Amino acid sequence: MTTIDKPIMIIGAGIAGVHAAETLRNEGYEGRIVLVDRDTQLPYDRPPLSKEFMLGESSETDISLRSVESLTALRIELKLGVRIVSIDAEKQIAISSDGEIMEWGKLLLTTGSSLRKLQVNGSDLEGIHYLKTLSDAIAIRQKLDGIQQIVIVGAGFIGAELASSFKRLGKEVTVLEHAPLPLARILGDEMGDYFLQLHQSEGVHVITEDSVVQFDGTNQVEKALTKKGRVIPCQAVIVGIGVIPNTFLSDKGLHVDRGYIVNEFGETSLPNVYAAGDCAMWPFRGTNIHIEHWDHAVNHGKCVAKNMLGGDSNAYTTIPYFWSDQYDHRLQYFGHTKNWEATVLRGNMVDKQFTHFYLNASGVVEAALLVNQPKNALAVRRLIKQQQPVDPDLLSNPEVNLKKVHIQAKEDKVSN
């Protein structure tokens, strides 16, 4: 294992940063580990914010990633409320907003992402919220008792999960989406229509192909006005229109294209500087991609931490995965694709239990959406990982075990 005289510094104490720090210790690293974050709160888990925490089913303690005691036991120096404003790779230093200079031997950037902001007239009124942090979630939850009508701007996964949570709390929910169908950019029109009907069947008013142009109210938001002339009464608005990777730290020679560009080992274009999680653009099957989900942050952080210690480097090849809970639906998505050639449905959408496969022109499974079928997860991962053409008839037949589809594809590879 490489000996590092100066500390390993990790900037960002979110999912990727915390798991990277723990991995360094678990791999036997004995040197100093400094974990820095501009937030003043202890590291916490974000997925429950739109679901269990919003519903009051979990507390701040429940969603805490690690306690001070557990980090102290691992000799991880946690510095909260410290905003790093610049780094110098040549001098191997980081400078905080109050002028403190911190030395490092190796640096890991796990700076996460920030929310896109909606800039329209009235967007500064009270009652207009964003959900990214624990503070955001607390602020929303504290106001819910006095709110009956809520507008959600954006029908992405956060917007959809909040719509589900608010309906469970008995609120009147309107979702505004500028695209023709929710989630269609990721899941396609057929699945977009499925989720549109799902939310409508639960009593959510979903408005597509329209957007907010103004919020009205004296001090508190009272209504949302849309491009097509709709006037929607509301006492609260939640905006969820996507995120932007945090790449505010720069240094000459540090390559950035939406996120910090890293190779398969997590190395940036600067020596001894790495990046992982939401802030990184990493290579996946010939192209650089950006993933904003919990599973990726955990696995990328762990993999890159191991590579920082020297020795045999391990390429990051984990199949992307994310999940979402909406009403009585557990959604699981494996893989990554934007330009599929064909889709194959296995199961019945009416029964709310099915798997929707996305195939490329060669008949290879690139991604899959599982709806209330967690038992298919392992087989789906294998199908995506093997990158071999499959028989669509076998794939669509629920009577054929998915393991057999996987085996058949392997045998076809051997025979060819």
UniProtKB/TrEMBL annotation:
Its cofactor is FAD. Keywords: Dioxygenase, FAD, Flavoprotein, Oxidoreductase. Gene3D superfamilies: 3.30.390.30, FAD/NAD(P)-binding domain (3.50.50.60). Residues 7-301 form the FAD/NAD(P)-binding domain. Residues 321-405 form the Reductase C-terminal domain. GO terms for cellular component: cytoplasm. GO terms for molecular function: dioxygenase activity; oxidoreductase activity, acting on NAD(P)H. Pfam families: Pyr_redox_2, Reductase_C. This is 3-phenylpropionate/trans-cinnamate dioxygenase ferredoxin reductase subunit.
